[in-house]
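Exercise (ungraded).
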Amino acid sequence: MSEPKVLHEHQPTGKIALDPEKAEEGLSQLVMTVVELLRQLVERQAMRRVENGSLTEEEIERVGEALLNLEEKMEELKEIFQLDDDDLNIDLGPLGNLM
Amino acid sequence: MQAETNTEELTYLYAFIPTDEYEKNPFPERKGMDPEYTIKCLPFDTITAVTCPVSHQEFSEEVLQKKVDNMQWLQEKAFHHHEMMNTLHAEYTVIPLKFATIYEKTDSLEQVIEEKKEHIHSIFHEISNQEEWNIKIYTVKDEFTQRIETYHPDIEQKKQEIEGLSRGKQFFEKKKLKELILMKAEEEIDEYCERIHEQLMKWSTDHEIKKNWERKLTGRTDDMCWNGAYLLPKEKVKSTLSYIEEERERARKKVFPFTFEVTGPWPAYHFSNFINRGEQSGG
């Protein structure tokens, strides 16, 4: 990944900024949103499997640790791109927020 | 609303009031929804319709559909409607009608009144000498949740149990704990609001629990957690408001602060819906 540029301070809008002048910022936000969505889906699926008892103790430990590392990595990336949780969400209007 | 293009004037209907109250205290001359015309009270036997003629060019269905997109026009007209309701409510027992209830001919209005006469009278009876008050309760849910996390004994115990687990298991248990904290916070907020509501029900003759509004609607920095409309007999208003004031004081001193927003008296908007939306269209 190339060295990210320092982004401007902004207010979360619940929308992806795809301004042609700031395409790079908008793209990183979009990619991060998709990754976060996938991460949360995987996490929920894992949680379901833990709760219905379909994982062994060893598997729970392994999956839990992997998800923890992934979560920590996402936090680092959010800091690098100066994004917060609200930025990684999309306002779907009457359907509510994406996450 | 159904309107024919060949009609010059339509009839905008604000409300129904009892004719005997109107006769004792006639409504003063006042500009109507269409400023070209004044308010007209039309007695139909024991029920008086508070109306205003409106021009077909300004208020026909086709024109109205376009005008509702004009926020300035809509705001001005909705405010006029609202003000009229408050004025009527101060003087009479009033059944308020929805904004933009328009009849093509007074004959059809008369026919509706005739058909719904008994129901209108029963609503007059139910809302007579009563006032609608709206009570909203707010708290900052994030802060409330954080305090639950810090102070709740069950949560503290659970946290200690998690500390002893391996790293991978901790991940899942912490997620479950987060859900538990959110659930406890919701439970405590609901319990608090329900307790207030139970007390309010003792004084009110009717109530309606409404949907909580989101921050973008309220424009506030805290979250609405209760939104109720209460129909109160006039003699119970004072004790109800004193109770709310006491609760407001108590809530200020709590670890978990709640704030109250009380508005009223309003006409009985939530307790006088005698015609459903489909029937309400003028014909």
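Further reading is listed at the end of the chapter. For now, observe: Confidence is low (pLDDT under 50) at residues 1-9 of chain A. Chain A touches chain B at residues 43, 46-47, 50, 60-65, 67-68, 71 (CB under 8 Å).
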